Amino acid sequence: MTLQSDAFNEILKLMQLEPLEVNLFRGISRDIGTERVFGGQVLAQALLAASYTVEDRQAHSLHAYFLRAGDHDAPIVYSVDRSRDGGSFSARRVVAIQHGRPIFTLAASFQVDEDGLEHQFEMPVVPEPEKVAPIGLLARDEFEHLPKSMQRWLDRFGPFEFRAVRGSDPDRPVPQPPFKELWFKLHGQLDDDPRLHRALLAYVSDFHLVGTATLPHGISWVQGNLIIASLDHAMWFHRDFRLDDWLLYVCDSPSSSGGRGLARGMIYDRKGRLVASTAQEGVIRLRKENK
Questions:
Q1: Which of 177, 238, 240, 274 has its CA 20 to 30 Å from the CA of residue 201?
Q2: DSSP state of 124
Q3: 280 catalytically annotated
Q4: Annotated catalytic, 120?
Q5: Active-site residue, selected from the candidate residues 41, 205, 230, 253
Q6: For residue 53, what pLDDT band results from cuts at 50, 70 and 90?
């Protein structure tokens, strides 16, 4: 079995929640070689849990807060509150629980399919993904010294492939404007279930986003002195899409202050359709050197 199929099957397994009781689900975690559960994983699982309590309507927005670091060695229980079911919209609130304490909350809204007025920002003019080199996050000798779990996370043949049109080299960070564009896609073919596509887009939307706020400062997580962690995450789904084809993530960061950085993102498909928008604030701190 190839690394591609291993990673693809692994992420699909993460999306398989176990029903425990009405409005109660349990999910497993993935060890990515860090001390905490990846925020995008909790985001995706919580959205799926909410989706499983809604019929004949799809998520159009979510707002989430990361409260505590998750333990990747323990399952996560998702408790769903069916806040409201109206004629066109349904609202859900989800609390993710580990070791008896909430680690994450999510509010999501779902809507029946409707026709209406349409407009969007145009997609930036960028090279096609086939003309952009895959991201190489680390030199091979450095990469091979990382834990195997983190190698699966960072390798270009992990569950997603990223191709940066504009951004930074984490090995050689230099100050630059707070803008980033990168193509990404899932390695593997997904079923047509829009709930799965939206959950996995929520998962991958947590990559690279708040890191945009570090670009003007010429800093990188590779240097070892940067503390960066998501505080919240918002997302809006505008149009249907497929995650197993290339999507373009266009990110910017309008501000950093008070130990926090704000980043925004727009996600386009290859035809130039704006399919989703994101916003995220995160902690951005430099470790103080011991004297």
A1: 177
A2: P
A3: yes
A4: no
A5: 230
A6: very high
